[in-house]
Amino acid sequence: MFRKKVIRNDEDHQMAMKRLDELMDIDVLTADQEDELDLLAHLIEVYEKSIYPKLPLSPIDAIRFRMDQLGLKQRDLIPYFGSAGKVSEILSGKRSLTLPMIRSLNKGLKIPLESLVAEDPSEYTTGKLNIAWESLNVKNILNVLGNILFATQHSKSGFVEKVIRNPEIYFSPFLKEVADNLAFSGCCRRKVDSSDYNSTLLWLSASYHKANSQELSANFDRNNMTETVKALREISTSFDGPVKAKEYLINNGIHFVTVPHLDKTFLDGAAFIAKDGNPAISMTLRYDRLDYFWFTLFHELGHIHHHLFDKSDCCNIFIDEQTPGIKDEKEIEADQFAVKNLLDDSILEEHNLFNDISTEKVTKLARDLNLSPAILAWRIRYKLNNYRILSNLIGNKGVRALFQ
Questions:
Q1: Among the residues of 236-289, which ranges form H helices?
Q2: Bridge partners for 321 per DSSP
Q3: Which ranges in 52-137 belong to alpha helices (H)?
Q4: In 3-state terms, what secondary structure has residue 269?
Q5: Under 8 Å between Cβ of 317 and 303
Q6: Which residues have CB under 8 Å from 202's CB, separation 6+?
Q7: Distance between CA 195 and CA 204 in Å, rounded?
Q8: Residue 22: what are its φ and ψ, rounded to 5°?
Q9: Which of 159, 205, 245, 313 could bridge 174 with an S-S bond, Cβ 3.0-4.6 Å?
Q10: Radius of gyration of the chain (CA)
Q11: Which candidate, 354, 368, 248, 228, places its Cα nearest to that of 298?
Q12: What is the model's pTM?
């Protein structure tokens, strides 16, 4: 017979369960027997909780539990999932819940959010940035950004299919990070109307995530910008100048990352403030050319120098794409910074290089100026609007391989 005591082992538990069964078989209990039954039930519950810790419900378990509570049939879930087929696929584990379904179940059936997203533990967001999830080319996004956003997951079997079924759950944490920290909607100085809005935001999310994962050797000092541009000009003469430029920037308080552009975007780069308060530059290397690399880099430096830390403006990000006809004041100022600090036109005019053009003359002047010939070629071609000349000096196919 079980003595009323704390249950400490399986033998005690079995005896307690046997006595509990005996009491429950009695039709009419005395007052002492009712007290004994209550005590046994409590002692058994305490013991079972100590050796069988409660496991969290899976989303399917949570839904089925709520169905049992409310006496619901599968057909009663159609309003939450959209069709009888989807209800069947979800309850059988063949389909994952989407965030709209999760929101609907939480609101309509009062199922806790933490139970519904247990299989995909990502932060639940209301979505400050309006993404058209159904239009995303998830395969292209993962092919381009997978290493950055999902470094330990994207190569696993079945991961792509999971993201395709439920992109909002997987991408939302990165987008939320951008929405919470960067004033995207109000501070994009160049229009992105010609680019795909969804892809632009995801590219920005990857850039922000990658920059925040990068450790700097020092904090940024705006007063050192003159020294910075001088050093970068000299670095441009090296065959691996872009990589050395990255190292120099990181050592001087500026994050530098490269993130390839996505389909249907025409992004060249962006400048923004990272979480540590230091500026960051992200470049797509969309044009795999030295001349374009140096101009884009100095353009973003112009934003950092003139605009990012302007306390009179809320802006903490500038996204730059190739958009003909844009005459935004701050974009013009960033262009002027790049021209002034890379190669002033007066030097080329002094050497008559807008009229008497040859590879030999450009190369010699570049050597005299301690500057990459690609920078001189860039300015001459742009100024004359003639992109057939000096093609051998622009460093075509000379950048991406350095970073790979």
A1: 241-251
A2: 267
A3: 59-70, 78-81, 84-91, 99-109, 113-116
A4: strand
A5: no
A6: 136, 141, 145, 171, 174, 175, 262
A7: 13
A8: -60, -45
A9: 205
A10: 32
A11: 228
A12: 0.71
